[in-house]
Amino acid sequence: MSAATMAGPARRARRKQYLPLQVLLGFLVVYFLIPFWWVFVNSSKDAAGLFGGGSALWFADDVDYVGNFIQLFTFDGGIYGRWLLNSALYAVVGGVGATLLAVSAGYGFAKFRFAGRRFSFAVLLGSVMVPATALVIPTFVMFSQLGITNTIWAVILPTLLNPFGVYLMNIYARDAVPDELLDAARVDGAGEFRAFVQIAVPLMRPAIVTVLLLSVVASWNNYFLPLAMLSDNRLFPVTVGIGLWQGIASANNAGGTSLWSIIILGSLVSVIPLVIAFLTLQRYWQGGLAIGSLK
């Protein structure tokens, strides 16, 4: 019997073996896509379509994305656009800043020996276990004494601290950046900063992109911190702004039925930048993995 003849039954056996896993994965895909599909469908409806008793998972007779989109960006003086810009500012500055600090600190913990290193890293691991929401009230009290509440810094400064990012970079730098390579760079006359930038950073690129994505997503989706820190609705991120609209719509059902349409569309629009960020950074992520394998 030839090898090709024997390979056919083996492939079929493997397919049957992986069939339950494929069915489970297919179920999970459908499960996670249903909420997104619901938002996508209902963002095209007006108040009559939302509350007219039609199917919640299918389009109404009148699909009006354009009308809802115009209403979204003109309602209340077009404040939704300002909320999007605020979220972008908080996510970019906070996410990039948190990534820079995490990369530097993680690399330092991994490649340098200094007094108090073990204790500092133990404190870092302990801080990973503390929920971020538990720190909001103490942070608010401290910032109020400094007089920086109700400013953009009250939202950006706390997001710069990412203990999990430091831990992830530390674990990755230990294996991805060989000590022999750094020693060779030092022998050739490279300083510590040059060795870090030109040798360590390219090798750590997959982990850097991972930490950047996690930091940006966490900053964009941040809700409780800006809710506690900010009182001026012009400084709100889109998460808090949509929550404000939901409160208005719930408290005033008679005048808030039309508001639900733009709330749903606003939720859909707020997800699009995260999708774009992930798709944009994904190729650098994959490219970094390939470079790491070649190294």
> What is the β-strand count?
0
The CATH architecture of the largest domain comes to Orthogonal Bundle
Overall number of domains: 2
Overall 3D shape: globular
What count of helical segments does DSSP give? Answer: 14
CATH class of the largest domain: Mainly Alpha
CATH superfamily of the largest domain: MetI-like
**Named CATH topology of the largest domain:** MetI-like fold
User: What is the rounded distance between the termini?
Assistant: 42 Å
The sequence of SSEs as H and E is HHHHHHHHHHHHHH
Proportion of strand residues:
under 5%
Q: Structural class of the helices, strands and pairings? A: mainly alpha
Largest sheet: none
Stretches where pLDDT falls below 50 for ≥5 residues? 287-295
Rounded mean pLDDT is 85
**Rg calculated over all Cα atoms:** 25 Å
State the helical fraction.
over 70%
Short précis:
Helices cover 78% and strands 0% of the residues. The protein has helices at 3-42, 47-51, 65-74, 79-111, 117-128, 136-146, 153-159, 163-176, 179-187, 192-203, 205-220, 224-229, 238-251, 253-294.
SSE blueprint and pairings:
Elements: H1 3-42, H2 47-51, H3 65-74, H4 79-111, H5 117-128, H6 136-146, H7 153-159, H8 163-176, H9 179-187, H10 192-203, H11 205-220, H12 224-229, H13 238-251, H14 253-294
Helix pairs in contact: 1-14, 3-14, 4-7, 4-8, 4-11, 5-8, 8-11, 9-10, 11-14, 13-14
